[in-house]
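User: Need the bound-state model for farnesyl diphosphate:
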Amino acid sequence: MIGLFKKWGKQTTEGTELSRDELLKGKIPKHVAVIMDGNGRWAKSRGMPRMAGHHAGMKAVKRVTMAADGLGVEALTMYAFSTENWKRPQDEVDFLMKLPQEFLAIELDELVEKNVRVRMTGIKDGLPSHTVYAVEEAMERTKHNTGLILNFALNYGSRNEMITAMKEMMEDVQSGKIRLEDIEEETFGRYLKTSGLPDPDLLIRTSGELRLSNFMLWQMAYTELFFSPLYWPDFGERHFHEAIHEYQRRSRRYGGL
Ligand code: FPP
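Assistant: Bound-state model below.
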């Protein structure tokens, strides 16, 4: 896989040094979405338990949040737990559910100070109360912040999101709140859990897997895709910069010429 990436002239495991100032001369994506993949393999390759990989992944969340903030990215959505991740062993699910709490216990003060606004996209029902409490507290404490939106996709699945949105929209049609003939793409977007956020300009997925895994399928119709061979816990600022550099070289035509 790494060979394949090298052949494409894209990211290598070493990353490419690119200064923040150089990147700031180009277009910065407003919204970056990240599929943080490879925690388990990172741990396995070191003879460590999978949880150690998730814990190291939490530290990468901090690095990438700071890198995104440093470039003036408006929103960063991190896929932290999908609706499919419940199928994992209970001890792993329990561990993953404690990570937002641990992350916010360590980082919230700095996020507040750095003007970061915490947000969540996903289904709160079904999440343990300690997870919801930690995220809601962070949302409350950062609600007046105007800088980077750090959006955790937690208990999130795109198909579920679209079905729920569709039902709510149809209820509003039935009650006369909106008219069927007035429904446009933006109308539907307002019923999604990402309402108010711009569609992602760039998706980063680590670990060499090349798929979307039920992540923001509606919102990513025209998103640029960047796949890194690195496992998520190894991903850091310079790799994020490299992804942004690659984004800046893409020509976005949205189906036009
Ligand atoms: C996928 O890797 C990763 C996850 C399902 C969890 C991602 C969560 C984090 C990186 C930490 C989140 C931190 C906060 C603050 C919310 P995998 O376990 O499927 O890796 P593998 O494919 O190598 O087994």
